[in-house]
Write a structure and sequence with these properties.
Elements: H1 4-7, E1 17-22, H2 28-32, E2 38-43, H3 49-56, E3 60-65, H4 77-87, H5 90-96, E4 100-104, H6 106-113, H7 117-122, H8 136-157, E5 161-173, E6 179-184, H9 189-196, E7 201-209, E8 215-220, E9 224-230, E10 236-241, E11 255-257, H10 260-268
Parallel strand pairs: 1-5, 1-7, 2-3, 2-4, 4-5, 6-9
Antiparallel strand pairs: 5-6, 7-8, 8-11, 9-10
Length: 271
């Protein structure tokens, strides 16, 4: 007979598994650049500007472009997809002395996934062999899950902090510029749910003004990050909320300095 007490895991992991969400220019790269220790910064060629921003935040950044090789040659989506997974292997991260991994970002990864041959094949109807649009969501989730598994393995086996950025489409802001309502820029309800629900920690970043009118970047914990699924007549049939959270932290401040190290202090109770 199975003894449940022998099956209980005593393993603990205080490393972040954090999604930083924000609109373009909100400070996602700046915040990611505050990650502790030697930081692997994975990005696409279209998001290369984020590297200099992350470095300007003081980060010890090892930047690698997923969809270009070291000579600068553009890679096919299939090659890029495979390259990213190879880079994220725990043994590769350990050898390089990586302490934090940044993937910038989910929206860009989805573009690569949906351009791969594997994605196209997964979307083929079994009988007709034609593209089946109803298979797009599940196929996207299945391939992006390969990256999520690789990131979890990096956190658990290489002992790194994991930070992933995601673009937000902001729908409402307060008088001081804080995000009140937004939705993740991912292709549909199912993909947004399938990806973001896997993050133990989610924070929204943006610029806010204090009473003197001075602006600064902050993590904003009062934001509603939502995604809905509607019928053809516009009736909401499913709703999911990805509002900011930090696992293990019950009372979140309304605003947190957009510094990953400050977030780690909150989670660990460090002073």
């Amino acid at each position: 007979m199975l003894d449940l007490m022998n099956e209980v895991s005593n393993a603990t992991n205080d490393k972040l598994f954090l999604a930083i969400a924000g609109c373009s220019g909100a400070g996602k790269s700046s915040a990611a650049g505050t990650s502790p220790g030697k930081t692997l910064y994975l990005h696409t060629a279209s998001e290369s500007h984020g590297v200099s921003t992350a470095r300007a935040s003081g980060g010890d950044i090892l930047a690698i472009t997923i969809d270009r090789d070291k000579t600068g040659k553009d890679l096919s989506p299939d090659e890029a997809f495979k390259r990213g997974l190879e880079i994220l292997k725990p043994e590769v991260l350990k050898k390089a002395g990586i302490e934090s991994v940044v993937l910038d970002g989910l929206t860009e990864l989805e573009k690569i996934v949906r351009a791969t041959t594997k994605w196209s094949n997964l979307c083929l109807a079994e009988k007709s062999g034609k593209h089946n649009s109803f298979a797009e969501g599940p196929s996207t989730i299945a391939l992006m899950d390969e990256y999520m598994k690789a990131l979890r393995a990096a956190q658990e086996q290489a002992g790194v902090h994991v930070i992933v950025t995601c673009i937000l489409d902001v729908q409402a802001v307060s008088d001081n510029g804080a995000v009140e309502m937004a939705k993740p820029r991912l292709s549909g309800y199912a993909v947004a749910e399938g990806m973001l629900q896997q993050f133990a920690d989610i924070l929204v970043v943006g610029r806010v003004k204090d009473k003197t009118g001075k602006s600064g970047h902050f993590f904003q914990t009062g934001s509603d990050v939502q995604r809905v699924s509607k019928d053809l007549d516009g009736t909401v049939k499913k709703f999911i909320n990805f509002s900011p959270r930090l696992s293990g932290v019950r009372d979140l401040p309304a605003f947190i300095k957009a510094d990953v190290k400050e977030v780690i202090k909150l989670k660990t109770g460090a002073k």
